[in-house]
């Protein structure tokens, strides 16, 4: 029975609707919803600065929930938890972060797998074993509510990562009589070969979400978490591995249960504007990750390809369907980090950060990259948050670059002060050679910002007429300080450096 028919079959009280299977007996009783937690004042999602945290690797605030193990091993639980994140929210506030995305917190499987060449546990939260229960290794429901409350008090929205496609290796859902027929698995030999809806991603048990009772069970569980915690939206894992009908019903139910502003950010592996538009056209999600940004930006900064081609790419991102967003990242838990790919070159990495924070879309900062966490290829891209001399485990003593963090603070403050950078149109002004100059213009506010990046090894100079939207013959360097003025814009940019120009106040 097609899930797309579920509104008619299951939600309208039709007598012919298939009965929903009961949840597993161990998780049947979910806590009552808590009172709603006031959200931050309305702010366009286009203006948000999103910070992504792997909870277990950020900060350990409650050692009592730690599990024994070698916390230096890449696949073990390292002790980070919600309480630690609560205690370090001011770290995010002082950076300028306005939205927080956390990895899943439902109960995960207790065992480990060895297919990676080392024992690998579910420290990341993506191997669920019980969708109705909090994993005690991450904290308690009350701590999740407190995190949301304290984040909201600081003007920070919270996105909870949720998984509908699969459960964890060896999950009890495969053993319980009520649910064992809900999953495809390699053990049963019934995984599909379509590399999409019916495949078992990474060998994980795949939920038969085409069955209405399975889909509704998962929806009920995740919507209940949102109601009880007060989160502002979901980050949706493995978007392409569920049917469009599922996501359309998901959107309908989240809006009905959680309000029209509940935000949905989807992960379509390898996605960019064209492929994400398949999920935008029927309004299944609000935003999706632009996987092409990292590669395009790093290639440009390393001198690969013409500047005009990079400008065309950035302009193309502005052709998004109205009301929807791209979220662009330099590093993540699933790809090698930008600093690692740049061979540790912090100068070019800072230029990458300039481009991320001066172009359209919702920038996602991966925890620790603002202090030069090396990242590396998997599993090194999920190592501990560096805290330097601060006694914050598990990353106490790991070196951090405070000067780089100050650069991030400056860039974020500039972005937050200038809607042209987050919501404006994009136009290349100089796209020859290694110097790239572009203009951001937001007509509603009249805000205009000019950005110049020199990826070359020698100073670059350009003479340009003042752009018509500028409305002045002078400019202030928002990033480095100083002032430019004259009948034309005479701009010099030092090697491997950037300038961000705004109209004088």
From TrEMBL:
Residues 380-400 have a biased composition (Basic and acidic residues). Residues 377-400 are annotated as: Disordered. Residues 1-17 form the signal peptide. Keywords: Metal-binding, Signal. Residues 52-415 form the Glycosyl hydrolase family 13 catalytic domain. GO terms for biological process: carbohydrate metabolic process. Transmembrane segments: none annotated. The keyword Signal applies. It holds the Pfam family Alpha-amylase. Its cofactor is Ca(2+). One of its GO terms (molecular function) is hydrolase activity, acting on glycosyl bonds. This is Alpha-amylase. It comes from Stigmatella erecta.
